[in-house]
Amino acid sequence: MDGLDSAQLRTLAAVVAEGSFDAAARLLHVTPSAVSQRIKALEETVGQVLVRRARPCVATDAGRPLLRLAGQLTLLEREALADARGPLAGGGRVRVAVVVNADSLATWFPTALARLPQRAGLSFDLRQDDQDHTAELLRDGSVTAAVTAQREAVQGCRVLPLGAMRYRALATPEFVASHFVGGFTASALAGAPLIVFDRKDRVQHRFIEAVAGRPLDPPVHYVPSVPAVSATIRLGLGWSMVPEQIAQADLAAGGCVDLAPGRHLDVPLYWQHWRLESDVLNALTAAVRAVAAENLR
Questions:
Q1: Calculated CA dihedral for residues 71, 76, 78, 79, nearest 10 degrees
Q2: Whole domain around residue 223: which residue ranges?
Q3: Transmembrane region positions (predicted)?
Q4: What is the tally of structural domains in the chain?
Q5: For residue 121, what pLDDT is reported?
Q6: What is the CATH number of the domain that holds 211?
Q7: Does residue 195 contact residue 227 with C-beta atoms inside 8 Å?
Q8: Residue 64 lies inside a defined structural domain of this protein
């Protein structure tokens, strides 16, 4: 770490997190000129451009390892400060940024946070992204940990298996009678409206390909909300793959039926986090693994 200045590293993190030099200056309570000087000095030390001056500003490939280092130093410093001051002193807030896929966030993951020992000054910055893309935020140093479908460890991270989230194909009985009168066939799948969370979400298309034996291109409704996806299914606008924990209630109530009884899609999930000795991170990891073991396959 020779030659690296902690204030410059924090400034780099602020520029990327806030998206601009001006916003970083407001966060750090310094002038934009001071922010620019710190970034320039850090780039001169490293001999590489670390920030792509765009809207928003983003870290370059050379800047990503330093961004991760800045986050690690901040976590350890705040954790040590909070421990040193004690629970009654205030200050030293420890904030942990975690990215989680939408379905985990809507089902089992909040329970893991509630299982953590109560600690004054601990707060979370939860981000949401598709499980196939959450690891990207680990790579660029934006988050400390991630629930991800990527089993290969991101550089500088540990990876632990959590289990698989099971998805079942749901629709209303009326929708089935209208679109799947001949059964759950490739021709029916090609024409039946499909409900998808967003353009990153490939769970439905993976299931269709597994059933049909080839990719299909059905009409799609994009509904970027887990509760709204379920509501849209119940209203008969389309069918979708639904996490088993959520599907059970609709199936039990009779409002929906399983389009493909006996068939499902399991998506393996992993917990990746910085390779860092932190009491907060260790406690979070233990809670996530315990709750995942109770809820995932």
A1: 140
A2: 165-267
A3: 175-197
A4: 2
A5: 64
A6: 3.40.190.10
A7: no
A8: yes
Strands (DSSP E) along the chain, which ranges? 51-52, 58-59, 94-100, 122-128, 145-148, 157-171, 194-196, 220-222, 240-243, 257-258, 265-274
- pTM for this model (two decimals): 0.80
Non-local (6+) Cβ contacts of 238 within 8 A are 171, 175, 192, 193, 194, 195, 221, 232
Q: Please provide residue 266's backbone torsions phi and psi, each rounded to the nearest 5 degrees.
A: -100, 125
The pLDDT of residue 58: 87
Tally of CA atoms within 13 A in the half-sphere of 209 that contains its CB:
8
- Has residue 261 been placed in a domain? yes
φ and ψ of 190, to 5 deg = -70, -25
Residues 6+ apart with CB under 8 A from 125: 95, 96, 97, 98, 143
**Which residue would you say has higher pLDDT here, 269 or 155?**
269
pLDDT > 80? residue 84 = no
